[in-house]
Every structure is written in structure tokens, then in C-alpha cells.
Design a protein that fits this description.
Blueprint (H helix, E strand, L loop, with lengths): L5 H6 L12 E4 L3 E2 L5 E4 L6 E7 L5 E2 L3 E8 L4 E6 L22
Parallel strand pairs: 4-7
Antiparallel strand pairs: 1-3, 1-6, 2-5, 3-4, 6-7
């Protein structure tokens, strides 16, 4: 039954977690703390909703931009920090969902 769609299914592979490190996302949950939170990241397709945890600092609120710093496999979440706390990564503005133009 699946043979006709087998080739399509082979193309639908998961995005490796390490390839998302350094990407910029947007807080989707009411807040992100050291124990809970979600963020959306544009992967070039439909987008991803990821479990994230704050590395340090005050809670981040919905709509704030975050940088994915590390992946914690045993807990299946990413450690994040506010984008403005990492100004060297601001060149990644073009990775935000809906922003397909390169800004210089």
C-alpha cells in the first residue's frame, strides 16, 4: 500500500538537532524559563515548534527573539538566550519566519 508514496516518505527526514544551533527563533509560549517554554523556528518549510529552556537570566516573554545555543538530548529541549544578549548573532535576521529577504 505504501509503495506509491515511498519515495515521498524518504524525502521527509527529520532536521538534525545540531543544524539548528545558532538559529534565531521567536518565543511562542507565554514565557520561557529554565523549566518550560516553546519557540518557533523557520526551517524553510512549515516551521518548527521546539521545546526550549532559558540558559540564564530573567524569563522571556511571548514574541521575544531567542538564539538556540545547545541541544539537550536526554531532555529533548534546546537551551536558549535572548537574541539581544548575543549581538554577534544579529546577522541571522534572515532566518526569522516570514523574512525571506537578505538585509545588509
Amino acid at each position: 500500500i505504501l509503495r506509491p508514496v515511498r519515495r515521498l516518505l524518504l524525502r521527509l527526514r527529520a532536521v538534525p538537532q545540531a543544524s539548528l544551533l545558532g538559529r534565531v527563533g521567536v518565543v511562542a509560549s507565554p514565557q520561557v524559563t529554565a523549566s518550560t517554554g516553546y519557540a518557533t523556528v523557520d526551517d524553510g518549510g512549515a516551521g518548527l515548534i521546539l521545546q526550549v529552556r532559558l540558559r540564564d537570566g530573567d524569563a522571556l516573554l511571548r514574541g521575544q527573539r531567542v538564539v538556540l545555543l545547545d541541544y539537550v538530548a536526554e531532555h529533548n529541549h534546546y537551551l536558549v538566550a535572548a537574541e539581544d544578549s548575543h549581538p554577534a548573532l544579529s546577522f541571522q535576521d534572515s532566518l526569522i519566519a516570514g523574512d525571506k529577504e537578505i538585509h545588509r
